[in-house]
Amino acid sequence: MCCECYLKLAENEPCHQFILGSSQGSFYQGGGYAIIKDWQAGLDSILLGRTSGRYSTRSQNLTGGTALDTGIYHNSDLIGVIEDSTNVSVSRGDFAFA
Ligand SMILES: [Ca+2]
Prior knowledge:
The chain has strands at about 15-20, 20, 25, 35, 45-50, 55-60, 70-75, 75-80, 95.
């Protein structure tokens, strides 16, 4: 499950970066994946681990309510789910690499 706070600007500041990996690789290889709830498009971002694999996203309903979720894949392995939102954009800078 998520999330750990990476950049906390001040006490009680909400966390806006969800950490799914580090410079050592993805935290969620194999079984299990992070569930990112309350995604705030344009405000939140996701930190992905640095690996040799390929990341991709897919819109599908995996968890939460009936709204579509965004599955985050490392190769064919599901590593994270953005619950009930598909408002996720690589070009907007929603993803960063550790
Ligand atoms: Ca859903």
